[in-house]
Amino acid sequence: MPTAPRYRRAPSKGRVGWARGQALLIEFVGALFVFLVVFLFLQNIWPENFNRWKDETEQQTMLLRANQLASALVESPGYPTDWTTNTVESIGLASQKNVLDADKLAMFAGLTTADYNLTKHDLRFFEYDFLVQIDANTASLDQNIGMVPKPDQSVVTVRRIVVVGGENAVLQLSVFR
Amino acid sequence: MIQGQISIEAIVVVVFLLIFLGLTISSTLQVQSFERLISDSSADQALCLKTADIVQEIFLSGAGTRAVFEVDRPVSVAASSITVNQTYCYFSGVAVPVSLSKGSIVVSNSSGVVSLANS
């Protein structure tokens, strides 16, 4: 019975000897380099996209809360409806929808000046800071109530048309962290 | 016997490739786990904000108003906040604290304060 030969003929050379192959280290290194570049690129994309998603979510949440607070201020009389600085549970400034009660507005300004953090609690506005600006045609009706944001803070602003002291005015609410 | 040959360099390269394969798999699994976490918390956040919005709207609408909506997971309501699993959100109003199971929820404003209950 024929046995398997101990060697194979190398067809390219035409002479009997060991069949050999060859792998170049440079090819492996090149492939590794390409792999590393692609791998590191993909590794960086994920954290960047994740951070961008977080920032956008934060902005949207701030905008939602700003709209909620603005609506609560200009559409609600607060709770209880005849609240005072001692009895207030939820601050609202409206005598009617979008018509601000001058007395409540004055109490709100006084509360904020006296204790800003307590006023945030009474506004049920815990997670951000706020600035309410009223801009009317009569300068005496203009007011700034709250904290002024720093230039490097992310700010979201909403506006409502209101009536203050019988005049049309713009209530601008800035929310920031 | 047919013999082969492999160099030390090739062995080293294969080892490196296996290490990088392990890193890639581990990184992919980590991304998948993050993606699952974000997906779950986004759904919770969406429900939280939807509930807060409805409660706020009923609060602003005054006594006598009422609404009904569905939730697909338990919701906890505090005086001015909503919690869904680990996610919480706030609303500018006053509500009666309550824990709600999934299903149909009735929101009502009877005396200036918002009440929620499973129907």
Query: DSSP strand (E) fraction of chain A?
Result: 25-35%
> Radius of gyration of chain A in whole Å, from Cα?
35 Å
Q: What is the rounded distance between the termini of chain A? A: 89 Å
Oligomer: heterodimer
Mean of pLDDT of chain A: 85
So how many helices of chain B? 1
* Estimated share of beta-strand residues of chain B: 25-35%
Total DSSP helices of chain A: 3
Features:
heterodimer, A: 177 residues, alpha+beta, six-stranded mixed sheet, 3 helices, 10 strands, rod-shaped, B: 119 residues, four-stranded antiparallel sheet, three-stranded antiparallel sheet, 45% helix
Task: Give a quick precis of the structure.
The complex is a heterodimer of chains A (about 180) and B (about 120). Chain A is of the alpha+beta class.
Topology:
The complex is a heterodimer of chains A (177) and B (119).
Chain A (H helix, E strand, L loop, with lengths): L8 E2 L4 E2 L8 H51 L2 E2 L10 E2 L2 E3 L2 E2 L1 H13 L1 H7 L6 E8 L6 E4 L8 E10 L2 E10 L1
Helix pairs in contact in A: 2-3
Chain B lengths: L7 H54 L3 E7 L3 E3 L3 E4 L2 E4 L7 E3 L2 E7 L4 E5 L1
Antiparallel strand pairs in B: 1-6, 2-3, 2-5, 3-4, 6-7
What does this structure look like?
- The complex is a heterodimer of chains A (177) and B (119).
- Chain A is of the alpha+beta class and 177 residues long.
- Chain A has helices at 25-75, 102-114, 116-122, and strands at residues 9-10, 15-16, 78-79, 90-91, 94-96, 99-100, 129-136, 143-146, 155-164, 167-176.
- A six-stranded mixed β-sheet of chain A has the order 5-6-9-10-7-8. Chain A has a two-stranded antiparallel ribbon with strand order 1-2.
- The radius of gyration of chain A is 35 Å and the shape is rod-shaped.
- The N and C termini of chain A lie far apart (89 Å).
- Chain B is an alpha+beta fold.
- Chain B has one helix and seven strands, in the order αβββββββ.
- Chain B has one helix at 8-61; strands at 65-71, 75-77, 81-84, 87-90, 98-100, 103-109, 114-118.
- A four-stranded antiparallel β-sheet of chain B has the order 4-3-2-5, covered by helices on one side. Chain B has a three-stranded antiparallel β-sheet with strand order 1-6-7, with helices on one face.
- In chain B, strand 2 (75-77) and strand 3 (81-84) form a beta hairpin.
- The termini of chain B are far apart.
- The model of chain B has no long low-confidence stretch (mean pLDDT 88).
- The interface between A and B is medium-sized, with 36 and 33 residues.
